[in-house]
């Protein structure tokens, strides 16, 4: 009879949720430490190599002057050369904005990608003759009449979004290190340092703050140095308040 009642209760309420063993917690902790190391290296590369090189490239592009007339044109020049080219075809969809251009050597046939459809790409037709500005062997501007449009390969002064990537990688490294260290130090009971809800919400806030702050600094022209500070404060504040509320039972786990 007792067995029947226990079986009935288990059938009604379902089996209890299985608890992770210490070995599995240690494995997850080790994986988080590896993720932390990879994210830290990404952050280091972004701020020491990617961001500085993009800024140097943009300054060199801005300082470039028009190329002198030459009989033989080299494949790559540090100056800006304007060539008259023919449009062979275009694609203007949200995921594929490009134009195929045919020009004189050394340009030849080239596929030029764009970040948006206007003001030139949307009006291009097969057979149109347009002007392509080439810098270091790459088409950076396409012009038709008075309308000009930068290509996706044109250097841009937008270090904020690059900094947003580096900031996200750095914050992810810190979060993964924190959660991984707790899993290894206390494998049988990591406490609140689990994916739901603590880890999940911290990751959402980290990704959201880096994206929103990055876009806002690009649109307003604010310096990229604000990104690590603002995003770091937002994530740290969220981590503290969420940990406090979870510990006091104000938020459901």
Question: What does this protein look like?
Answer:
The protein has 253 residues and is α+β, with helices and mostly antiparallel strands. 51% of the residues lie in helices and 17% in strands. It is built from 5 helices and 6 strands. The protein has helices at residues 2-13, 22-63, 159-185, 195-220, 226-247; strands at 80-93, 96-102, 109-113, 129-135, 138-144, 147-150. The protein has a 6-stranded antiparallel sheet, with no helix packed on it. A hairpin with a 2-residue loop joins β4 (129-135) and β5. The model is unreliable at 1-18 (pLDDT under 50).
The best one-word shape is elongated
Q: Kindly report how far apart the N and C termini lie.
A: 36 Å
Number of strands: 6
How many H/I helical runs? 5
Q: Fraction of residues in helices?
A: 40-55%
Largest sheet: 6 strands, antiparallel
Beta-strand percentage?
15-25%
- Which residue ranges are poorly predicted, with pLDDT under 50 across at least 5 consecutive positions? 1-18
Order of helices and strands: HHEEEEEEHHH
Radius of gyration: 27 Å
């Amino acid at each position: 009879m007792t067995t029947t009642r226990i079986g009935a209760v288990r059938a009604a309420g379902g089996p209890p949720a299985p608890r992770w063993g210490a070995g599995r917690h240690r494995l997850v902790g080790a994986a988080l430490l590896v993720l932390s190391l990879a994210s830290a290296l990404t952050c280091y590369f972004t701020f020491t190599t990617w961001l500085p090189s993009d800024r140097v490239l943009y300054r060199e592009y801005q300082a470039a002057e028009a190329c002198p007339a030459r009989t033989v044109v080299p494949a790559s020049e540090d100056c800006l050369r304007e060539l008259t080219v023919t449009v062979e075809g275009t694609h203007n969809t949200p995921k594929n904005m490009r134009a195929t251009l045919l020009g004189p050597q050394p340009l030849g046939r080239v596929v030029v990608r764009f970040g948006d459809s206007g003001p030139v790409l949307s009006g291009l037709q097969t057979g149109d003759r347009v002007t392509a500005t080439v810098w270091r062997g790459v088409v950076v501007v396409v012009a038709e009449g008075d309308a000009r449009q930068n290509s996706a390969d044109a250097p841009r002064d937008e270090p904020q979004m690059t900094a947003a990537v580096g900031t996200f990688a750095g914050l992810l490294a810190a979060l993964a290190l924190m959660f991984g260290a707790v899993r290894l130090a206390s494998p049988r009971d990591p406490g609140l340092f689990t994916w739901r809800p603590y880890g999940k919400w911290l990751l959402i806030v980290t990704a959201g703050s880096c994206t929103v702050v990055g876009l806002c600094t690009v649109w307003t022209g604010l310096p990229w140095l604000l990104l690590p500070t603002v995003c770091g404060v937002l994530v740290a504040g969220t981590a503290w308040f969420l940990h406090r509320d979870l510990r006091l039972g104000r938020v459901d786990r």
